[in-house]
Write a structure and sequence with these properties.
77% of the residues lie in helices and 0% in strands. By secondary structure, it is mainly α.
């Protein structure tokens, strides 16, 4: 039971860290996080998806 809990915490941490550090640099991943994950992650903290929004604002059209 403890191992399962630790695994779930690690997966959630990886999901958040991916949103903060990897997704802003990857256009496809950034789009997915922005439409699907950010509405839920913003409930935890708006700062999690801030790098994604900043990367989108500086993206050339």
């Amino acid at each position: 039971m403890r191992s399962l809990l630790i695994l779930l915490v690690l997966i959630a941490g990886g999901f958040v860290l991916t949103a903060m550090y990897i997704a802003p640099k990857q256009p496809e991943l950034r789009g997915w996080y922005e439409t699907n994950a950010c509405p839920h992650l913003d409930k935890i903290s708006p700062q999690i998806c801030e790098p994604i929004r900043a990367a989108k604002a500086t993206q050339p059209i």
